[in-house]
């Protein structure tokens, strides 16, 4: 592997313009594909095989006019009169009528005849419900309860709702100009005299913004300048990172033409991961190139200016040789590190969740592109820049090389650990264990209007609805009662029995039949729970309703199942919880085997995996404490943790953790292979790797943390969780616990049973095969 990558790196340096031309064509091709093939993304967070999803499909078979509860291009407008007034007051009523009249003029809306005042709609519904109650023999109390559960007007007359439907197949197909026209009318009429908000599928849109990425890149630039002491050198990893992620994102958008499983979050996640690893992988190779240059020149204490001056004296072919060495040595670690990230991401497909599989594949593809950019495009750019790669000296910054005789901060730190390894090992474990404790209270939920940012129209509408109609109005469920196997005369009784069984469930405010199929074999029962969508009790109510189905079926011969946005999201959360441990087991086993091949050791992969377990548990604990429990008031709007955050976080962080393990421990093994004692190899390897791993971790943290500026709760939490995970894993696990354990293990750390050693493939991640390689073995080219 190292020899092959040496040839790739050297060839890229020598044939720089050819390699650059190929990448330019790839960029243009990806951009063209994205522009010509991009289709709207989908936010249908559904999973095949779930009861709620299958129930919704059967509703579509019985009721031809039914809509997808998650993707329908619909929304709800909620209006509220000022304190002391009602929507029936003449002045307010006139304002409502004018507002609805202007809405009906929007070309992008359909069913505009249904845009009527909540006061009139409630009056008409009351007459309809009264007539139905009479024919069905309902009591006045039950009829009143049924009316209250679905009335578009609150009991005090101050708040009303109006449904709105856009002219589109799904919510993601709504034309942006139609949505803008709608919001313009709302903004015009919303005032102190009439507060108006809106929510629903039609308005749940995540727009791709580059503000977060720019902030992350700015911080990364600062770290790189401090690392290299050169503006040009600092800019190269940024250039390669942006190019890699640009191609990856373009590919994601082009893929929307071939699959409906790409959600609006997919490009964001791919950008988040691709940008972080892209910059880091280039950083590792560029740092090794700098190290090879300094070693070749023989000056360990050179300033960035002196290095730039000395670089001019090195012939072009010799620089190509050094670039090949850098790619051959650091590039091998990059390839295996990228492979662990890809394994962790691709393994998400075993969960069989379409939108999550698409996210994983998109992120994995972006990581793969970042690896290829680092080992081919970067050395080509180094060849194009030539002797000016470390020019553009940054003032004040010294950026010493680890070979400098003066002890670096990394060497000072590892010496402290070497003196007291037990203290640092136990101390690190205790800190992470304490941080992990709050994770026991983790509560999962899918994103909804209730988790939107405070002050947004959807969050305002959610809160207005809860205050005026009760929490359950935001979390309705639908039970499909199927009685096709019963005699026709018994079906009505079965529908009624199902309604009563559901109504008697603790936590259900109301249950009523809202539709019967044309063939009379099925009925829909609207269920209004006592709790909102984000309340943990909502899951208990759903479980109890489903538990009552078996005795109902035994008594009547009919059956029912439950669907709705809340049941769908609850089922997704449950499925994700069920597959979490198997997923963790699979990626840990695969990565363990990969690291055994890389390091030819059993202990090193084992402590790497166990250290990851500690860091991810601590990540969940801190995330729950701040974002769910609201400890310290740091987060003003604590919410349940998004359901797929744990599994995404585990997949991503495991890959990144193995990145740091590979880059840090590879230098340790390199020293041990070349004759150093285990302890000295650990210290020397840490000295060489600490600076670049610290820079890489800071870059990843800045990229991830920048996404906390996105105005979506779940993106904020994912950004925070990934940033804190990188911090814990890089600085506590990889740079404290791992060296402490290596010192305690001593020579045993590198022991491997002979029978295993014989069957393992040789990958030469240390670049040992490059030790005696000569620059004169390759065909030369005129110097430049």
From TrEMBL:
Residues 221-384 form the SSD domain. This is MMPL family transporter. It is found in: Cell membrane. PROSITE patterns: SSD. The lineage of its organism: Bacteria, Bacillati, Actinomycetota, Actinomycetes, Mycobacteriales. Its main location: membrane. It is a multi-pass membrane protein. One of its GO terms (cellular component) is plasma membrane. Belongs to the resistance-nodulation-cell division (RND) (TC 2.A.6) family. MmpL subfamily. It comes from the Bacteria. PANTHER family: MEMBRANE PROTEIN MJ1562-RELATED, MEMBRANE PROTEIN SCO6666-RELATED. The chain crosses the membrane at residues 214-233, 238-256, 268-286, 333-355, 361-385, 422-440, 580-599, 606-628, 640-660, 692-710, 722-745. Keywords: Cell membrane, Membrane, Transmembrane, Transmembrane helix. It comes from Corynebacterium alimapuense. The keyword Transmembrane helix applies. The keyword NADP does not apply.
């Amino acid at each position: 592997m190292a020899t092959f990558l040496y040839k790739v790196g050297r060839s890229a340096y020598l044939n720089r313009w050819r390699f650059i031309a190929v990448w330019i064509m790839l960029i243009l091709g990806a951009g063209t594909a994205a522009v010509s093939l991009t289709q709207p993304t989908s936010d249908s967070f559904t999973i095949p095989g779930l009861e709620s999803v299958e129930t919704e499909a059967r509703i579509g078979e019985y009721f031809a006019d039914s809509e997808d509860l998650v993707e329908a291009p619909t929304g709800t407008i909620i209006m509220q009169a000022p304190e002391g007034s009602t929507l029936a007051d003449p002045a307010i009523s006139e304002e409502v009528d004018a507002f609805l009249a202007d809405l009906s003029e929007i070309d992008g809306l359909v069913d505009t005849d249904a845009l009527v005042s909540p006061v009139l709609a409630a009056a008409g519904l009351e007459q309809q419900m009264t007539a139905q109650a009479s024919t069905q023999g309902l009591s006045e109390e039950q009829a009143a309860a049924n009316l209250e559960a679905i009335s578009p007007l609150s009991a005090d007359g101050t708040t009303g709702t109006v449904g709105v439907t856009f002219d589109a197949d799904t919510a993601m197909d709504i034309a942006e100009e139609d949505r803008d026209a709608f919001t313009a009318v709302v903004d015009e009429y919303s005032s102190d005299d009439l507060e108006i908000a809106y929510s629903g599928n039609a308005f749940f849109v995540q727009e791709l913004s580059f503000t977060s990425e720019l902030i992350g890149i700015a911080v990364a630039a600062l770290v790189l300048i401090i690392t290299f002491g050169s503006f040009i050198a600092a800019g190269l990893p940024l250039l390669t990172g942006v190019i890699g992620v640009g191609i990856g994102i373009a590919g994601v958008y082009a893929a929307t033409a071939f699959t409906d499983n790409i959600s609006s979050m997919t490009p964001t996640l791919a950008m988040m991961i691709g940008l972080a690893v892209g910059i880091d992988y280039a950083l590792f190779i560029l740092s090794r190139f700098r190290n090879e240059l300094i070693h070749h020149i023989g000056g360990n204490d050179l300033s960035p200016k002196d290095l730039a001056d000395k670089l001019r004296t090195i012939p072009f072919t010799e620089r190509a040789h050094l670039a090949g060495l850098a790619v051959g040595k650091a590039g091998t670690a990059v390839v295996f590190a990228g492979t662990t990230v890809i394994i962790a991401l691709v393994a998400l497909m075993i969960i069989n969740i379409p939108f999550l599989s698409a996210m994983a594949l998109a992120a994995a593809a972006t990581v793969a592109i970042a690896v290829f950019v680092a080992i081919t495009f970067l050395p080509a750019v180094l060849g194009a820049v030539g002797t000016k790669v470390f020019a553009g000296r940054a003032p004040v910054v010294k950026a010493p090389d680890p070979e400098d005789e003066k002890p670096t901060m990394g060497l000072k730190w590892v010496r402290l650990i070497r003196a007291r390894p037990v203290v640092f090992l136990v101390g690190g474990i205790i800190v992470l264990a304490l941080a992990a404790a709050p994770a026991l209270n983790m509560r999962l939920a899918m994103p909804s209007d209730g988790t939107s940012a405070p002050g947004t129209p959807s969050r305002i509408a959610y809160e207005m609805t809860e205050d005026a109609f009760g929490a359950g109005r935001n979390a309705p469920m639908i039970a499909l009662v199927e009685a096709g196997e019963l005699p026709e005369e018994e079906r009505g009784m079965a529908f009624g029995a199902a309604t009563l069984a559901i109504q008697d469930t603790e936590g259900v405010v109301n249950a009523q039949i809202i539709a019967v199929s044309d063939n009379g074999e099925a009925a829909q029962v609207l269920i209004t729970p006592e709790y909102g969508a984000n309340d943990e009790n909502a899951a208990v109510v759903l479980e109890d309703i489903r538990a009552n189905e078996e005795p109902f079926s035994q008594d009547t011969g009919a059956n029912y199942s439950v669907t709705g946005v809340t049941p769908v999201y609850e089922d997704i959360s449950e499925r994700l919880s069920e597959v979490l441990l198997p997923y963790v087991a699979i990626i840990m086993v695969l990565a363990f085997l990969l690291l055994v091949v890389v390091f030819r050791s059993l202990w090193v992969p084992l402590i790497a995996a166990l250290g990851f377990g500690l860091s991810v548990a601590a990540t969940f604990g801190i995330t729950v404490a701040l974002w769910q429990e609201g400890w310290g008031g740091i987060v003003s709007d604590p919410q349940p943790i998004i359901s797929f955050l744990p599994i995404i976080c585990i997949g991503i962080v495991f890959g990144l953790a193995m990145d740091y393990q590979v880059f840090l421990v590879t230098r340790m093994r390199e020293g041990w292979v070349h004759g150093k004692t285990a302890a000295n190899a650990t210290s020397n390897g840490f000295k060489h790797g600490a600076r670049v791993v610290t820079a890489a971790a800071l870059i990843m943290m800045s990229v991830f943390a920048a996404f906390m500026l996105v105005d979506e709760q779940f993106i904020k939490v994912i950004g925070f969780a990934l940033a804190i995970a990188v911090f814990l894993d890089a600085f506590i696990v990889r740079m404290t616990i791992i060296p402490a354990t290596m010192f305690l293990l001593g020579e045993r750390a590198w022991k491997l049973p002979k029978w295993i050693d014989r069957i393992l493939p040789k990958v030469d991640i240390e670049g040992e095969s490059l030790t005696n390689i000569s620059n004169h073995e390759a065909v030369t080219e005129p110097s430049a």
